[in-house]
């Protein structure tokens, strides 16, 4: 895969993560207004940073994918719960596709080289 296409995939993975946080903020807003929405969004970002980001201090080969499924699954279920079924399905499909593409060896190597500047 050309590097430009790989970087596009990685950018779409980031967009997907932002959409999941937005969805959780939206769900929190339905649960208890904007303070709950903000709390849910900040909590999702903190959990993602601790366990699912490329440089997560407590991530690992088992923890990272489990946390990703929990965050994206919560966002999709929350969208369904708030009456946004079409948006929930769209987020689910988009998440599965871009994260599957990100697992391709050429894209995964780009991500690893970006997180380790000393690597060629």
Automatic annotation (TrEMBL):
State the UniProt keywords alphabetically: Membrane, Transmembrane, Transmembrane helix
Q: Where are the transmembrane segments?
A: 33-51, 63-81, 87-111
Name of the protein described by the UniProt record: DUF2568 domain-containing protein
Question: Organism source for this protein?
Answer: Nocardioides seonyuensis
């Amino acid at each position: 895969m050309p590097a430009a296409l790989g970087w596009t995939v990685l950018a779409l993975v980031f967009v997907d993560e932002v959409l999941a946080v937005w969805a959780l903020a939206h769900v929190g807003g339905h649960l208890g207004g904007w303070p709950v929405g903000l709390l849910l969004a900040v909590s999702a970002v903190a959990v993602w940073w601790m366990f699912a980001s490329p440089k997560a201090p407590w991530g690992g080969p088992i923890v990272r994918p489990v946390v990703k499924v929990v965050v994206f699954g919560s966002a999709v279920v929350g969208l369904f719960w708030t009456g946004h079924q079409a948006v929930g399905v769209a987020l689910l499909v988009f998440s599965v596709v871009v994260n599957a593409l990100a697992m391709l060896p050429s894209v995964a190597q780009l991500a690893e080289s970006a997180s380790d500047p000393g690597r060629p």
